[in-house]
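anyone seen this seq b4? input:
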Amino acid sequence: MESLEAIREMPPSAKLVLRILQEVKICDLNRLKNESGLSRRALMYALKILGEMDFIETRICLSDTRKRFYCVKLK
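predicted toks r here
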């Protein structure tokens, strides 16, 4: 139940990003930007919120360490 309360308190951008990640499973920043239509600043804020609330994981691409992939954490 805690997670439902946390989701209700999230800004709309974070809810949108969470829904997209639930559908596509794993995604990089460019794809998230294209799928959501959010600005880079709004997208980074949403990812920060989701990370702080422990809803998503950030993974580093092994072939290019500048790239990050985001996915929903399994609970």
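The chain has a mean pLDDT of 86. The chain is about 55% helix and 15% strand. kinda curious what u guys think
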